[in-house]
Amino acid sequence: MKLTEQIHRIQEVMGITEIRDKFLKFLIDDNPNVPEYVIKDLFYPSFKDNPQSIYNDNNDWYDVLQEWEWELHKDVRITMDMFDEHSKNRFRERLESEEDIHVPNDKKRHAKQRELILQRGIPQEPIIIGHSEDEPGKYGMWEGWHRLTQLFKIYPEGFIYPNVYIGSTH
Fold this sequence. Notes:
The chain is α+β, with helices and mostly antiparallel strands.
């Protein structure tokens, strides 16, 4: 059954809150090789915030979820040079201005992450990156932007990050 048909069937039977919960369970059950953290932090929020997005014909995010392999790496050295040009440019923009009008509460989120890092040190919560398809040997930044931006402000030469999910198409 196609993804949109599955969601439509669930929606017919249940309300929006129930559909969100059922959809999360569906994603987890339908993708046993994807860490639950990656589903909850990277893929599910876009649906949760905009349930109608599932109905468009271009569900590239679901293809990525199903086709990519994910692995948790410990104590990864993070430097700006490891990222692809797109990610580096976004980091540079965020380092200059902590307010992206497309990101809700962006400035507050940056301030909160900086405060937490200064109080507690480098976070344990994983970040999510993926091997760049356009630039071999480089990574695209996917999730954890606020944390990493603040860490680059504090440690511009790089730092060791304790938990990194890395996705690849291998």
